[in-house]
Amino acid sequence: xxxxxxxxxxxxxxxxxxxxxxxxxxxxxxxxxxxxxxxxxxxxxxxxxxxxxxxxxxxxxxxxxxxxxxxxxxxxxxxxxxxxxxxxxxxxxxxxxxxxxxxxxxxxxxxxxxxxxxxxxxxxxxxxxxxxxxxxxxxxxxxxxxxxxxxxxxxxxxxxxxxxxxxxxxxxxxxxxxxxxxxxxxxxxxxxxxxxxxxxxxxxxxxxxxxxxxxxxxxxxxxxxxxxxxxxxxxxxxxxxxxxxxxxxxxxxxxxxxxxxxxxxxxxxxxxxxxxxxxxxxxxxxxxxxxxxxxxxxxxxxxxxxxxxxxxxxxxxxxxxxxxxxxxxxxxxxxxxxxxxxxxxxxxxxxxxxxxxxxxxxxxxxxxxxxxxxxxxxxxxxxxxxxxxxxxxxxxxxxxxxxxxxxxxxxxxxxxxxxxxxxxxxxxxxxxxxxxxxxxxxxxxxxxxxxxxxxxxxxxxxxxxxxxxxxxxxxxxxxxxxxxxxxxxxxxxxxxxxxxxxxxxxxxxxxxxxxxxxxxxxxxxxxxxxxxxxxxxxxxxxxxxxxxxxxxxxxxxxxxxxxxxxxxxxxxxxxxxxxxxxxxxxxxxxxxxxxxxxxxx
Length: 601
Fold this sequence. Notes:
mainly beta
């Protein structure tokens, strides 16, 4: 999941040769430039001199701001524990794609040709940073770090039957702000999300004055396809179009010639039937929440609506059914006023309201039917579908947010693992509250009734990063695949590792007991000791009949041997050994979401 920050376009000190940043809000101006306006007006009669003086003043202003930052702020690397070493960044392997020759087992003959690609943070300059100053500390959150794409290309050998050509490549997503940082050859953007309020506010201001935006455009969360184009995305900016073959960053997606002027969710959904792309975008000021639908060919914004929220809700994903959009309005919020008053920019409000909205595909704020639910935190939806009068929503639900706030100096994950809670913390974090379980809400469109099953998956494991057969998005589905949270040792605040995979059978129950009457059947594919996965994705079998005809593909890393691999697991024989294990030529850090993209020859 991406860090949440929002673009403000102003007069900035960044190089004029850089691609221009999207214009969102223009009420900020550089006071250093404004103070010279009377002088500049007096030079109007000498236009050539005026231009030269303006450039000189801007250059001087920028140097003064940079000198102020260098004098006041100290950038400090955030240390990693030994158990976190595979969260450390790696270098690009270069322009050439590397051939992969070590394959255990066999890639199935009916496996589709294509590319398995995963996004994730790969911070510049050695890792995430904190700053120290007389104003306090500000810190990068664990979800920050410039995006890097890791891609495994799978193509059948035309000459040798049963042989595959497998190639690996990695590359940073070259956003506008990535290029700014690379040009500077040192950290420039001050962390502006988490930390002491005065330090975060000043970082906020100085980033705007120097670069024109509050924070870096990360593009580190997900990859998706629409209208045969491929995009990298994090919801603090527009998507970047990617050449899927070279991993080159092409350009920012200027959605339908600027008809959408804000970032959008890392998890857009294709509408069943039409193929239109349903998107949402949040902002820290009104309008807080907008929804849009982009045409199937990607050329037109066919619908756009302000949902009239009264707060900025951190909504990471939208759901779709055959007729509806599913909106999650839960009490993890962003509030600039709260920050100004000394609180945190992002906070889970445990006493705040929570609701799920069901909206006709092309509806507006007045057409949404809201269902009040118990406050909780949801980042990822598994699937939504219609069942007679009910809309069914399945998601990974936690009672609290796993993102630590700036006033929280505790290791919430250590508490979960040890079953502790502390009355000294603003919110108590326990095993039951912090890590997600699979939940199902049934929302009756006629009666307004809400039926909820808070824990379909049981307490044996926490689980996240769901994947399904995407042919069933918006329709009733039987199966879901999730990553299982490692719980045998402490991995540090936020740096969660996943020690296995699970397959949930929604239409089969476990052996019923009085305590576990709602649990569904679960199969587990646990990884070898000290091996962890990321970016798991379902790959449908071409011509498959059953929903689970296909494979799970995932990046893994063996920390004992420092080896990164790709596992391919038969979804129908889920507990069996992988059908193929592909050893990669370089380390792949843990990351976020992956996808398999079939490619035409």
